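Blackboard transcription, Thursday session:
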Amino acid sequence: MQTITKMTKRPWVLWVLVVVFLSLILWNIPIEKRKYGLSQSNLVTDYTGLLPERVERVMEATNRSDLQDIIKEANEKGYKISLAGLQHSQGGHTYYKDGVVLDMRSLDKILEIDEKNKTIRVEAGASWEEVQQAITPYGLALKVTQSQSIFTIGGSLSVNAHGRDIRFGPMAGTVKEMTLLTPTGEIITVTRDDSKEWMKYVFGGYGLFGIILDVTLELTENEVYAIQTEEVKTKEYEDYFKRLMDDDKTAMHYARVSVAPETFLEEMYVINYDITGEIDKDTPLKKEEGIRISKFALDIGRKGGKLEDLFWETQGHYIDSLDGSTITRNNVMRSESTFMEYTTPGRVEVLQEFFVPVNSYEEYLQDLKKLLSSNDSKEDFKVHNITVRYAAKDEVTTLNYATEDMLGLVILIQHGLKKDEIEGAKKIIQDWTDLTLKHRGTYYLPYYRYQTKEQFKESYPAWEEFYREKSQRDPNEVFQNLFYDYYLKEGSTS
Ligand SMILES: Cc1cc2nc3c(=O)[nH]c(=O)nc-3n(C[C@H](O)[C@H](O)[C@H](O)COP(=O)(O)OP(=O)(O)OC[C@H]3O[C@@H](n4cnc5c(N)ncnc54)[C@H](O)[C@@H]3O)c2cc1C
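(Written on the board underneath:)
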């Protein structure tokens, strides 16, 4: 009683206690990393762990002539090779039953930075993190990369990744030159005007057309951007985005769509990075910050229902607080990732991405509202987050997800691991894919294989050309992975 009286006389004591209490809670939030990768009790998995498989062995990619010997030997002896970067793909793209996995991560040298011509030549096992470390002191930045820097160059080009940039087109288009170890064991230099058109198949080719040894990437200036944020309605976004593209002041952009019950698929927060004309050589690369608090907020949102409403509102305040601040291009391309770690036993969190033509966005979202449940707190299949990015028309790759200018919806989904729960998730994602196809859209291939073989073929009508070229350029089918086996080998006969 006495203590309480003392506290009311001195309210700061109460505040100190509240702060200490909250700090203790936050401090104790475990940041446990997912367990995945090349050795999980003799099984190999990728980021989601959904397709564990036994492989013959894992070999470190050391030097080029050793790699050449391995490929020649595989051609002679008939063993199968898969390539692994940082294994953020989620559908067995980096390994194959009883095959050999080449771990590309040690092929990671920065070979040359040409400051005048703004290019970097880098080995394909390096991560974007390493590239950013190397180019930032020169005031240079990447033209296109994912929103995070946690991927290898080879892995990113093999899926033809995209991110927040809205001006430089597809990632594959930023490669000037590539050194490739072909499926028959030759090391060749490939340029954009190469008559054999290797880039068309290697980029977005999921490691099936040889080993990317190094690439020369076009760079741009490490510009300083002014962050501009606002809230828009989903029905206004299509026009909003078109105006943004017509007006040249914004260099990078993304948006979040509400998945909270009260504003489900109706509200969006947009984040624009507007050109200031300044170039930066001094600002250091930002480190991950606020991991525990972000994880705490995300975990609240993961509960769904009213708590998800609260999470959406909190995100709004946070995004609003960024308005008017400045950030360098390199720092936009390295957003936080650790807070997304999810390790609850019996459940998994996966990504999916659907693309629709910019002109179809509004109608698509209206239809999507009818397909998904706005309050999934009691359901097994939960949608936690949707971000929207622009994927410019791609004229380079064969397995092409952007045959015209597209908006990509990146979706963070959680579901259970029991057989019926996986089947339930499959059903919803397949319905979602049908809806996307109905709107002339497609889906992204690095993720888990929820989609049917028919949906794959409809989404990627050039699959036959891809498959035919694969048989010609890799006659002994040396490069294999579970993705290829399921959608292309099995798919071609079904
Ligand atoms: C949390 C998270 C966030 C993501 N965000 C984005 C995003 O913002 N934008 C986006 O587009 N994608 C995104 N992705 C998908 C990601 O870009 C791809 O999974 C990408 O392939 C990851 O690179 P990696 O190094 O992990 O590749 P891996 O998964 O290791 O490999 C991917 C493919 O590339 C092949 N490969 C690897 N190295 C080589 C090489 N040297 N030569 C030839 N083939 C090779 C592999 O065989 C495999 O088929 C995200 C994924 C996760 C898990």
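Lecturer's comment: The chain has 15 helices and 19 strands.
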